[in-house]
């Protein structure tokens, strides 16, 4: 198994077996206000939305998980089939392996299913030269988009992971220009990978011409923690220490949604593992929610297991909408929200 394939396999194993999420639940800081008299028929509630010009039956995207090694074939097939049946979006994992080594089928399998919104994936670090590594060209990225028939390309920001990972790609100079160049060629979005988006970053990105941002704030999988566990197993003391020190680094997921509200479409992710958390993200300004780890175990089982999980989340979302008197997702965005705890502290401090 090649180095990059081994790393991706390790990521799946560590995410399933080790503690890689923070102790504090930032989504519990966000509370929807109960409406004792909803004046809504639960059966009439409409959860559909339009995201990046594509209609989804519910405001959910299964965000980047994996690709580029043998086990990823079954994972991505199960995810794509379930997303097609549920009418939700699906984003593949980093397509770096297919750009460097050619498609092995673990990405293109998504084309076997009628997924309403397909999101490609390339890393911002790969848009510039790294030590001994060439920068991906626009043609490289466009070919990756074609391989899966992506409606939009996500450019992921994973510099927290890279700085912890031994021999990580830590040159960030020129990435903004790289994002701008890709956005000129077709629909693009930017996706963080667990550390969140600040208002300053959101404003910088808005100027590139991207369509939206997946904020992926603190609350879900910490890739600093993932790399810490990998480093510990490899006996790398420095990387282990870095991962431990920075495992809770970043912007709380709910705060990141509010920070990124600069006029772009927003995907709320980072610990969104049920429909109530999805509703909370929508109520504070997101256009859709994103999850990955929440369906990983199911994706390794079957497409039906993934579909069952998605349907559970939909039922929870509808319950939250019903209990706040919302017939549509747009209604939910107009409901009063209470924010407390560490998230409120963070937002207050950021205003000073």
SSE topology sketch:
Layout: H1 3-17, E1 30-32, E2 49-51, E3 54-56, E4 60-62, H2 71-86, E5 89-91, H3 96-101, E6 118-123, H4 138-148, E7 152-157, H5 159-164, H6 175-185, E8 188-192, H7 199-206, E9 212-214, H8 223-234, H9 237-245, H10 253-259, E10 265-268, H11 275-283, E11 288-291, H12 296-299, H13 303-323, H14 329-332, E12 337-339, H15 341-351
Parallel strand pairs: 4-5, 4-11, 5-6, 6-7, 7-8, 8-9, 9-10, 10-11
Antiparallel strand pairs: 1-12, 2-3
Helix pairs in contact: 1-8, 2-13, 8-9, 11-13
Q: Nearest-angstrom radius of gyration?
A: 19 Å
User: What is the CATH class designation?
Assistant: Alpha Beta
CATH superfamily: Aldolase class I
Number of strands: 12
List the domain count as a whole number: 1
Notable traits:
single chain; 352 residues; alpha/beta; TIM Barrel; eight-stranded parallel β-barrel; two-stranded antiparallel sheet
Summarize this structure briefly.
43% of the residues lie in helices and 13% in strands. With 352 residues, it is an alpha/beta fold.
What does this structure look like?
- The chain is α/β, with parallel strands linked by helices and 352 residues long.
- It has a single domain (3-351), classed as Aldolase class I (TIM Barrel), CATH 3.20.20.70.
- The protein has 15 helices and 12 strands.
- The chain has helices at 3-17, 71-86, 96-101, 138-148, 159-164, 175-185, 199-206, 223-234, 237-245, 253-259, 275-283, 296-299, 303-323, 329-332, 341-351; strands spanning 30-32, 49-51, 54-56, 60-62, 89-91, 118-123, 152-157, 188-192, 212-214, 265-268, 288-291, 337-339.
- The strands form 3 sheets. An 8-stranded parallel barrel has the order 4-5-6-7-8-9-10-11, surrounded by 6 helices.
- β8, α7 and β9 form a beta-alpha-beta unit.
- α1 crosses α8.
- It starts with a helix and ends with a helix.
- The mean pLDDT is 95.
